[in-house]
Input
Amino acid sequence: MNPDETGAPREPAKKFLLVNRRAPWGTIYALEGLEVALIAAAYGQDLSLLFLDDGVYQLLSGMDSTEIEMKNFSRTYLALEGLEVNKIYVETDSLLRRGLTEDLLAIAVTSLSRDEVARLLADQDVIINF
Amino acid sequence: MLHIVNKSPTEKASLQRALLVAVPGDVILLIEDGVYAAVRGSRSEGEIATASGVSVFALAPDIQARGLGSLLIEGIRLVDYGGFVDLVVNHPPCQSWL
Output
């Protein structure tokens, strides 16, 4: 039953965080995480994405998977902004340890310190890991 | 001999293990997520630099898929799938550090 039709108050949107910690091609996790992000965006939840550890590799620009014969899903990250998924976070330390900088990424992100990552995690209603 | 490493150096210690036993004249080939070790400024750069006499190759299609083409450590050579086969043929035996 749709709560709007009964006049019951709508529940406040829950805060969802998707934590992405895997590199893009070696496993299916990155693609699965991206698909869940697209679905969650469609349900109008308060959605945040956090890229930690090898997950930061998912956001590098210039990926071309033609030669490994896999569908290049990396461009789909660019669609997140159009779906009003704007809370995209990257841990600065995860980038630095891998010799990477924020300007190498394909989309705009908010960089977080380790303490800020801890606060972001603690502030969620639901955390889903990929 | 040829050491093949296919795991990310920040996820598993496969590359470190290969470097522990690689001797001068050996070849290391980075494939799949192993190619992240070929990025300039990563922790792996220093580890690879200490392995003297060991040549390091990376599989070009995996580098391209990950957007790493402009981020490579100097001295790492790229091979295509044909070059992969040549390394296997020319440097037996072959050990895959899964």
